[in-house]
Write a structure and sequence with these properties.
The chain is an alpha/beta fold and 277 residues long. The chain is built from 11 helices and 9 strands. The protein is globular and about 45 Å long.
């Protein structure tokens, strides 16, 4: 089991700017818990996501001396990827590739075809700089734009990523429309078809639907989950305040087993998150 804690996703749409020192302190606390990875920041336009304009400064204040937790940064273009590649301590670059053309335009100001070309360029940068690329297939379970959707569209994009030798693909429920049925269909189809790809679940969810989503993904082979403490955040481009991230504490409760986390530090992190947000 891999839990990817996502303070970046929790913070990015938060209207009040969180001071750099508070961000740094929060992520340093999360580093004590033992998560596999922390999605800590992004190298994107400060006009698009002003909350994360201080990502490089936050990174400089992180204490990585006594943790095995890896760091992931989101990028949206080649320049952002190049900036992120300058930091040795960043292990993963995350790129949002959408099944929806409209959302791709809203999110990265490109078409899907242009985004695929960018994925290829970023993959080359990652190989050159000893990073690993994580591609988020956003709107993987449907979209709010009345665009045509079918699981085959997700499969087609996955095949293209496989041809580029992308090793991690996170199926992303950007607006909270996934159901146990379509979660089962995608994971049960893609995981056996692409054994070289690690598939993750990045679910945005309402408070009453998280458990069914976790169960459907887990029973169909998913062992990588993106979460955020208390379910804070979501996608600011999706404009739905009712849909937040998968709550980390609920995911931990669901599995009822030792996930290798320091639960005392986890409780400290929960307390600190209440102060941050």
């Amino acid at each position: 089991m891999k839990i990817i804690e996502c303070p970046r996703d929790a913070m990015q749409g938060f209207s009040k700017f969180i001071p750099t020192a508070k961000k740094t302190n929060y992520i340093n606390q999360l580093l004590k818990v033992g998560f596999d990875t922390i999605d800590f920041g992004s190298f994107v336009s400060p006009k698009a996501i002003p909350q994360l304009k201080d990502t490089a400064n936050v990174l400089s204040g992180l204490d990585l001396t006594s943790t095995s937790t890896k760091l992931l940064a989101i990028i949206a273009n080649k320049r952002g990827a190049e900036d992120a590649c300058n930091f040795v301590s960043i292990d993963y670059l995350g790129f949002p590739l959408s099944v929806s053309n409209q959302f791709q335009q809203r999110n990265t100001n490109t078409s899907i075809d242009e985004a695929l070309a960018l994925v290829a360029a970023v993959q080359n940068l990652c190989l050159k700089h000893n990073k690993e690329l994580v591609v988020y297939l956003s709107m993987a379970f449907g979209n709010p734009y009345a665009e045509a959707y079918h699981p085959d569209l997700v499969a087609e994009l996955t095949e293209k990523l496989y041809q580029m030798e992308v090793g991690i693909v996170a199926l992303s429920d950007t607006i909270g429309v996934s159901s146990p049925a379509n979660i089962q269909t995608l994971f049960n189809t893609l995981i056996p078809a692409y054994p070289s790809i690690e598939f993750g679940a990045h679910f945005h969810t309402t408070a009453d639907s998280w458990e069914d989503k976790v169960a459907a993904a887990y029973t169909n082979g998913c062992r990588r989950f993106d979460t955020a403490l208390k379910g804070y955040g979501g996608c600011p481009m999706a404009k739905d305040e009712l849909v937040g991230n998968m709550p980390t504490e609920k995911l931990i409760t669901y599995f009822q087993q030792d996930l290798g986390l320091n639960m005392r530090e986890f409780e400290n992190s929960l307390s600190l998150s209440a102060q941050i947000f």
